[in-house]
């Protein structure tokens, strides 16, 4: 049985930051998700996303669903964009050689937030 949280097992904030950087390389290259970030302060976003991913991994930072909904409401995120984001997130985690069980756990955590992130279709 694995010990500690995913955050602890994979190197904490250092790894969360690397995952976020690799993930956003994919997100920005996607024709579906890239346009959502045309006018975004990327360094600020990367900082927030590192804390969010760390939180999803079982780390110390935390975001409530209300905060996520408020942050995403004006973006009019579609189900198609959410599906693309979830696919790219999974690919990124696999690139970091995470155990399949951990990839599934994190993918499930992200998918559980669909209703607070998607606001258009």
From TrEMBL:
Transmembrane segments: none annotated. Heme binds at residues 48, 72. This is Group 1 truncated hemoglobin. CDD domains: TrHb1_N (cd00454). It comes from the Bacteria. InterPro entries: Globin-like_sf, Globin/Proto, Hemoglobin_trunc. Keywords: Heme, Iron, Metal-binding, Transport. Pfam families: Bac_globin (PF01152). It comes from Microbaculum marinisediminis. One of its GO terms (molecular function) is oxygen binding. The keyword Transmembrane does not apply. The keyword Membrane does not apply.
């Amino acid at each position: 049985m694995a010990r500690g949280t995913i955050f602890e097992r994979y190197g904490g904030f250092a790894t969360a930051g690397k995952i976020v950087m690799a993930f956003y390389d994919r997100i920005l290259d996607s024709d579906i998700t890239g346009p959502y970030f045309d006018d975004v302060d990327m360094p600020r976003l990367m900082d927030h996303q590192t804390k969010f991913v760390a939180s999803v991994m079982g780390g110390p930072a935390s975001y409530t669903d209300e905060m996520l909904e408020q942050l995403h409401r004006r973006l009019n995120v579609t189900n198609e964009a959410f599906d693309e984001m979830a696919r790219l997130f999974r690919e990124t985690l696999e690139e970091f050689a995470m155990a399949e069980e951990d990839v599934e756990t994190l993918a499930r955590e992200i998918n559980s937030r669909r209703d607070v992130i998607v606001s258009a279709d």
